[in-house]
Amino acid sequence: MEPIHIEEVQEQLDRLANKEVYVHLETTNGAYASHFNENAYNVGAFIRNAKVNYLHGKIVGTNGTYRVGLKLDIGWVYAEGVNQWELDEQERLLMAGHDREGRLMVALEISEQPFKN
Amino acid sequence: MEKHVVVIYPHPDDEAFGASGTITQFRQKGVPVTYLCGTLGEMGRNMGNPTFANRETLSEFRKKELIDACKVMDVELRMLGYRDKTLEFESRDEIAQHLKNILEEIEPSLVITHFPGHAVHPDHNAMGAAAIEAVRLMDPASRPKVWAQAISHDHVKLFGEPDVINNVKPVFDQKMKTIMAHRSQAQGVLGSMNGNAEAAANMEEVAKERLGYESFYTWKFD
């Protein structure tokens, strides 16, 4: 993955709009968060292969942290904190935010084919 | 002397951090060891340092690392095919039945797994509970012993010291090799154990201090 280039990511969000696509959305601070720091509270959520068709998608943000929102006809998909991206060999748009130690904190991925379960 | 040891953990690297010293000591005595690994750690947060995996490629890396680690330990590997972070939502009975079938085939004398409720990660707790349920469902006459590994902060306060405490420092090089075979995880896990990333530079010392002993409670069925 490489640092987000906002124009390139926007181009991919546009390419995938108004199509049946599969979304992986995830956020987590890790299952050990409160084990290593008693003041921490474990949080996490993920949804894999949500099938959606978004009207438009937009990436906004500056200085290396970005937010991505997908407007659905009756709802929204949204991720905050993505800082890296790649278009993989299957043309899937993979976006993620990592902490300073390189651990994944948030991921938003969009594909025209279902993700492998 | 054990006849055959079966290790049941959910993630590639649980065996390395938790029991690879003990496993190595069994292998040195010629005891066969089989590792039943529940998932491929698909949802791991460590992506290598520097980062080389992404969410979609991580499972392939971790599968390769798992196979390599099992070569280092010289154990048989069976991958159970569950998905990371979902074990506690699966049917406990189904997983227990799955494990019981394998245990009845292998006929081990000892099973090593996580101590349910005291293994911190939800997958650890779920896998440990299913493993113990699998053994409980077996004919009492042919049940293997179970060593359950607790890593919660309060387990000693609640249960006293574990009755099995293995000093694995004599085989620590081998344990370190097993941990390092899990390339995408090793630095991240060792770093976070020490609460700071600089520890990554001093991994071997951190590891020896934290991981030089492997402790287990012998499970009581009754």
UniProtKB/TrEMBL annotation, chain A:
Gene3D superfamilies membership: Hypothetical protein YojF
Pfam families: DUF1806
Family matches, as SUPFAM superfamilies: Hypothetical protein YojF
Family annotation (InterPro entries): DUF1806, YojF_sf
Record's protein name: DUF1806 family protein
Organism: Sediminibacillus dalangtanensis
Automatic annotation (TrEMBL), chain B:
Top-level taxonomic group: Bacteria
Cofactor: Zn(2+)
Protein name: Bacillithiol biosynthesis deacetylase BshB2
Naturally occurring in which organism (per UniProt): Sediminibacillus dalangtanensis
